[in-house]
Amino acid sequence: MAVEIRLQNIIQDAKNAGWEETDVLTAIIEVADNLMLAHSANAELGATKSAQTETRLMNSPAN
Fold it and tell me: Which residues lie below 8 Å from residue 63, measured CB to CB, with a gap of 6+?
């Protein structure tokens, strides 16, 4: 898997820079978690905006 190879390279680079492997893995998990939370928030915002637009269109004088 291409992502796995890249992550292994990041882990190795961090270890070469003096990080402990567990610290690197913890940091990767934290970044991934933050990205997932941001993605979920953006998806919710998009759904809210779509619903608001649909409501405005339904309530416009042309309808």
Answer: 57
